[in-house]
Task: structure prediction
Amino acid sequence: MQPFTRLTAVAAPIDLPNVDTDRVIPARFLRKPQGSAGYDRFLFHDVRFDAAGAERPEFVLNQPATREAKILVTAENFGCGSSREAAVWALLAYGIRAVIAPSLGDIFHQNCLKNGVLPVILPAATAAALRQQLHARPGATLTVDLEAQAVTAPDGAVHRFEIDAFSKQKLLAGQDDIALTLGYESQLREFEARHRAEMPWLVVTPPAR
Amino acid sequence: MFDKIWARHVVAEGPGGQSLLYVDRHLLHEGSAAAFERLARAGRRVRRPDLCVATADHYVLTSPGAPVPDEEIGRMVDSLTAHTGGQGILYFGRGDARRGIVHVIGPEQGLTLPGMLLVCGDSHTATHGALGALAFGIGSTEVEHVMATQALWQRKPRTMRITVDGRLGPGVAAKDVILAIIAAIGAGGGVGHALEYAGAAIRAMSMAERMTVCNMSIEAGARAGMVAPDDTTFAWLEGRPFAPTGEAWAKAMAYWTSLPSDPDAAFAREVRLDGAEIAPTVTWGTSPQDALPITGRVPDPSAIGDTTRRQSVERALGYMGLTPGMPLTDVTVNRVFIGSCTNSRLEDLRAAAAVAKGRRAVVPAWVVPGSGLVKQAAEAEGLDRVFVEAGFEWREAGCSMCVGMNGETAREGERVASTSNRNFEGRQGKGARTHLVSPAMAAAAAVTGRLTDVRTLA
Result:
């Protein structure tokens, strides 16, 4: 995955709480391979485009000042619902690299971390204040610095955020998990042998029919 | 209970408070195709195919003989068939009566067992928690990781106990209980938590009912939801095809009976509801938290002080095409869907058939069993005839109109009374409007053509 270090970019505000991943990418696009032609258009498709495929001017990513956004600042529980990782792939295809929110859907949160999209959790009041500044000055930029764990708001205020050290290190390095986990092979084998002895019934053996 | 199962599955502790957890069971469906392809591109194989089981559900058509609307849809199933064959994974495919919705067949086959750690690339994996398993949904990259390593990095979530005391009233179903819980804690209330459902009302539930409750944990924001295993669980499990037998059963029971939370177990958050106060419930909006008793009225945004909440309700009512203040029982529906991993088990079909019997559907109404075996069992009881005589359509097993990815969708503007789990914008088709209800309430809506309090259909 692409590493994430520091990003200064236009941020787009999304005020509605509980934006689900069906809205981020409707189900009918899930059979399209990641990165296939036009993948960026799947993002928020049914709220971004009308029935004829024309942009709905009121949608934030269709407005001239925010269409180049690489950061979203959202309300509570953004990315709730379906586990579809395609929601993150669509964000990436559009160019979004960070999502700032008071809370994120748990699976979406994980999916962001696995794809080099930085999830930033800030208190609800801070996220609301950021969105307010972005509404007041459309096209304003934010800086998200992962190393420093800090977001710099348009008004210059700096907001610290928490991220666990393991996720941070993997994002900074752009490191995938599998190779790393295979480094735990001896622990895995040891666990597997013990677990199998303790719970032999777990292995799928086709039943006699 | 959560802590006990977690501790039993830690392979190693990593930095930053993350644990490497061992996965006992990995369930796969058509959505796993991308992960299989990445795994193959990396030159890797599935580490433990003997701990995996696959079925086709999301993309299968539930109308026998109907033409495949889009060849990409057919290819999703073919791809799963090829990948599982290549990896030596047990697969319930087309033509196998054991095929069905992944969250129905896991428990049905005894592939889901108490105290196991189970994952699946689907957010409704919490369903399996009804058996006292730690079960949660994962994304595609995590699916690939489990395929390659049989393990997963996770941060330990906080725990929340939701106690439902008392007895449920007549006409009140498990679906009403979970909708009431979601309305109480909110669609984001469970974020970062694993839920444990407890209390007399939960204890009195059958396994199918517990599965309905656990299934919608994700609609409350939680990846995992569970019920402690008890005699109901063990009696239900014994004799299922993949459940242990003989000496292995006895050994498993020793572990399983040790799982329930200790009396002094501490939870990060406790929530209590009175089961007797829960009424048959329907959703009016576009989030599962937008749920009210059927006796209620559509909310009036002008009475809401909080600006964000007001705008959110206004948007939902605009999408749903509802008038503030109207009685919910005045809402007419165009279509009914009975099915999904939430409500497609035999008991669900029985509850719907009891309402449909001797009546006539006045709108198109689909009944989609959760598995081929549920379908067979329902037919053995004559439920299919009850539905067909009442004008309902009796279909093959699958996810069908819950997911909107297999071509089986409602039309733009259509209003659906649905036993599924999500009333999101566009979930059941672009522009489709969903009201979540129990199976009995769905059947009631089918025979009256509007949202109806099933208790009034004596």
Chain B is about 30% helix and 15% strand. The mean pLDDT of chain B is 96. Residues 71-87 of chain B form the longest helix (17 residues). Residues 59 and 405 of chain B are 7 Å apart (CA to CA).
